[in-house]
Structures are given as structure tokens and as C-alpha cells.
Amino acid sequence: MTPLPPPWYAVSGAPSSGKTTTVRLLAARGYRTTEEQARAIITEEMAKGRTLEEVRGAGEWFQEVILERQLALEAQLPVDETVFLDRGTPDGLAYERFLGLQPNPALTLAAQRSRYRRVFVLDPLAFTADHGRIEDSETQKNLHDAIRETYLELGFDVVDVPVLPPEERVDLILERL
User: Fold this and answer.
1) Which of 9, 137, 154, 176 sits most deeply, having the most CB atoms within 10 A of its CB?
2) What is the pLDDT of residues 132-175, one digit of tens each?
3) What is the value of pTM for the model shown?
């Protein structure tokens, strides 16, 4: 019998789907949460003087750094505590495929080895641009589909979270643990 994964739950979805808001609300309810690694890297690199286009345009490098950070983060998580992750490792694989980047065997292997009890894929909200986004609403929809399909392909238990007020989204997630 396959051992049950740790009580870790990935909160995923396309840009502007409410992931960060949802994860922050889960933290406010007392749950351990993680920060989205891509956004942290973008913020750090822009503070060094790089533009968003430079950071995001270095696709293979960007995905590699995200992978390194995500794996280091997950290696430090307690295996006996409920944790909500703002994106999981397979998100990187979905982005890599969607963007047509050179496949990274380490990313593919890490995505296949990822262990989350469940993945909550948030339906997109109205697209809102911000300092870390270069997508548009059409790209948003296509990324949503790519992320969802990648998790399903890898055999994860995926729960689709419809557009609801933020607190109701959190309630739905907690009801489906």
C-alpha cells in the first residue's frame, strides 16, 4: 500500500486567480503556508535592477531557480503538519511546457516525485496586471488549463475551486481536505 503523502496542499492556478489572497487567508486562520517562489524571485531580481521582462524572459534560468527554491522550501516543511503551498513543483512543469522551454529533466523528475495530498486549482478571476505579471487574459485561461492538466496527468487529486468570495473559497478548501 502506498503511504499517504504528508498533509501538504498545493493552491494553484493561473496568474490573477486569487492564490496569494487565498493562502494569506489560510494563514490568518492559523495554518502554515508558503510564499510563491516565482514572485519572490521576481521581486529580488527587480530590486537588483533587472526588469520584469529580463527576469521572465530568461525562461530556463527562471524555472531552474524556482525549482531550486521550491525543493529547498519543501525539504524544510514538517511532514506531520498541515501546510498550504502557494504553488507546487508541478506548476513549473506546466509553465515550462506552456512556454515551450527546453525540457529540464530535473524539473520533470521533481514534479513526478512531488507529494501533496490534494491540489486546489483556483478558477481565474478577472485578469489584473501587476509588477510580476506579463500575461493577458487569454494567456491566463490557457495557463489555467495547462496547470490543471499537468497535475491531473501526474495523478494528483485535483479539486477545482470556482470563483467565489475569498472567504468562501477558503471554506470550500477546508471542507475538502
Assistant:
1) 9
2) 556 677 888 999 999 999 999 999 999 999 999 999 999 999 99
3) 0.92
